[in-house]
């Protein structure tokens, strides 16, 4: 009896192997694409629900900064998944923004990948689209899985999506983002953003990437950042803006000249408070945000100016990275 049972198990295993041989099999071996994203194996994608309502443009930007895309459902199964999300949203007549718009040509709705709405398995709500006030260029989905056109400046919850196919992984820094570089002795990773932003937008970008504007805690860390900047000389960076000032994570926005890191420490408590010569100078109309020069000495800067910025990710706080592969 035992021999027969073992034989049946082996036969079943062989049948399953034969049925899958020669086809691409998706294998997810890690715990997550990034924090708060949930992997749906049947949809071969990661999803994150944003319950705080944003405008369509802000929702699109949020997903993009997280390395994902504002969802545009491609199958009935994905529509059902989004309907289940809406059941859990605590709002009156809730609806989700979708990654579909007609901003390029009035009435021509396309996804963020320029796929025509007509090519998707989606259904309009009765009476939609109606283009009220000739100002409804974005799309929402209601609890029944039906669509309505709406003002892009209205606010709704939304879902970000990252397809698993061909997704690479930066094992050293435990992120999908290959632009992060590990400083081994510091157990920290850094990314220089060469697309300039103001300080608050840089803060937002770093947070969306799962990090924070860099905080210098030692001379060793200062020297590493200086070497990182050497690899990106001003002439190698496109654009007409100041490339010798780089935002990092300190400020005096609460009390003038009382500099604090994003973690609330004074610069001395953080471990590094070496300003460049004649700095800080609080140049008019007021420099309230933290930055460094290319030698990584500290500087105060105007918060609204467009500068480079550095994001930091501490790998000490995160678990062992796993990979995602298509076999």
Automatic annotation (TrEMBL):
Protein name, per record: Immulectin 8
Protein origin, superkingdom: Eukaryota
Residue span(s) of domain C-type lectin: 47-161, 185-312
InterPro entries for the chain: C-type_lectin-like, C-type_lectin-like/link_sf, C-type_lectin/snaclec_domain, C-type_lectin_CS, CTDL_fold
CDD domains per record: CLECT
Keywords, comma-separated and alphabetical: Disulfide bond, Signal
PANTHER family for the chain: MANNOSE, PHOSPHOLIPASE, LECTIN RECEPTOR RELATED
Signal peptide range: 1-18
